[in-house]
Amino acid sequence: MSNSRAEDEAAINTVLADSYKAWDAGDADGMVADYTADATAIMTGSLRGSRDEIRRNMALGFAGPLKGSSTCNKQLGLRFVGQDGAIVVSESGILFAGETEVPAPRKVNATWVFEKRNGRWLIAAYHNSPVLAPQN
Fold first, then answer.
1. How would you label 105-135 residue by residue, b for 16+ Cβ within 10 Å and e otherwise?
2. pLDDT digit string, tens, across residues 55-72
């Protein structure tokens, strides 16, 4: 058996790392460089229906309320769906200037859907939802 899944996993993790680095740099173009043209992003209260729309919204955010922010991300799982699909689940949050930890109310669980097109792993969809406090 080949190690293609290990190579695919490494490639997916590189795509995520590059996206996180671009966020930290406030680089909207870099952040969506590995998104499909028809990618979607769903976040509380919003649907962004293409890579261009995601890029425009991120550029506005980086010029405004997200200026100087970074992200904190912890991968919770990665699984493959056939040969050309993968799903990553993560816990993430935005760190604003001076913060070293994401406050609980700003943590989200995220689902990343990846598609392998022409030998390259790309983000086809992203969705996040607030992390709820555990019920006692």
1. eebbebebbbbbeeeebbbbbbebeebeeee
2. 999 999 999 999 999 999
